[in-house]
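Sequence and structure are no longer studied apart. To make this concrete, we show below a single chain and its fold as tokens.
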Amino acid sequence: MTTPPTLDDQRPPSRRRPWTRAQRRAAAGHFVRGLAYGTGLAIASLVSYWLQQMV
């Protein structure tokens, strides 16, 4: 006896799935890049502030 097909087996393959996956990966990359830029900016700002206080 075979099991009835599940809902996923009945649907045609979606064209949006690879596009969505690529968009998520790009968004994650942009998020990480933004974190890196923000961290670098914060460090540079703190060093600049520290140097101004030393002078």
In short: Residues 3 and 42 are 58 Å apart (CA to CA). The longest helix spans residues 16-54. The chain has a mean pLDDT of 86. The helical segments are 7-10, 16-54.
